[in-house]
Give the backbone structure.
Amino acid sequence: MASLGEWLEEKRTEGLGTGLSLLLIAAGVTGLGWMAVRAFRGGDAGSSFVGRNVSALAVRDAEGRTRTLAEFRGQVVVLDFWATWCPPCRMSLPELAALQTAQGPAYAVVPVSLDRTGFAAVTPFFAANPTLALNAVVPSDPSALAKQVGEIRAIPTTLIVGRDGKVKRAWMGFSPGRLDRELKAEL
């Protein structure tokens, strides 16, 4: 069996396009596999988020209005980071939509789309999937997201924010029923 160096040299002599293409495909498949394992297993994200005050997070709704999480002070907030292209996110959206439909004075659901094109991706996605429709928002300043909330390493990432604006519970990935359990535990 040839070493990686020998294989790359062989591909280089065959032509840069073929070898580079195969290498990029292998790297992409490996990266996607790693992200999928993390996203589907519902990993704990608590150490990097719990205790952090996220009241400064600024988001923009479909009408262009900017709000901050500070406006929800006194309510428990389900803060969910997701994207239209993410399979585990799509699996979690029905539970999130049901909670958003049922929300009242005790809690609020804030689904934050991390799609790079913002509402240009979100609006047609919900038009094509009306049962998943949410009152979604996008970060007002995506470059400030890590400073305002913390580093989002995988999606979906869900934070349960207490009435004081501090993260009480956090996890990555989708695990059926976990969102409801975690919210009830905080309420």
Remarks:
- The mean pLDDT is 83.
